[in-house]
């Protein structure tokens, strides 16, 4: 899992394959619950998935660009393009199902 910001985001979204981006904030309780789930997915999928973290307080431009209005928001990129967005905390199985659609 890699923390990125406005300057490093584009260079870390995979041009081919899957990138999951967790838009969150340090003060957000649901974000704290989601973080270990995202870490588990990162470990489980290994090289098949790149996982990025964006702090919406530090990178509000990125949040605005991708329509992030609430924390946490997870956006899945396939071949460099956003394909799915999940707003709010969801069970791990929901993220796994989303990933399976693109693998």
Task: Give an overview in words.
The chain is of the alpha/beta class and 103 residues long. The chain has a single domain, classed as Glutaredoxin (3-Layer(aba) Sandwich). It is 35% helix and 29% strand. The protein has four helices and five strands, in the order E-H-E-H-E-H-E-E-H. It has helices at 9-12, 29-45, 60-65, 92-100; strands spanning 2-4, 18-24, 49-55, 73-78, 81-87. It has a five-stranded mixed sheet. The longest helix is centred in the middle third of the chain and has 17 residues, at 29-45. The radius of gyration is 12 Å and the shape is globular.
State the gist of this model:
With 103 residues, the chain is an alpha/beta fold. It has helices at residues 9-12, 29-45, 60-65, 92-100; strands spanning 2-4, 18-24, 49-55, 73-78, 81-87.
Topology of this structure?
Blueprint: E1 2-4, H1 9-12, E2 18-24, H2 29-45, E3 49-55, H3 60-65, E4 73-78, E5 81-87, H4 92-100
Portion of residues in helices? 25-40%
Q: In the CATH hierarchy, what is the superfamily?
A: Glutaredoxin
Strand content bin: 25-35%
Please outline the major beta sheet.
5 strands, mixed
What ranges have pLDDT less than 50 throughout 5 or more consecutive residues?
Answer: none
Strand order of the largest sheet: 1-3-2-4-5
Distance between the termini: 19 Å
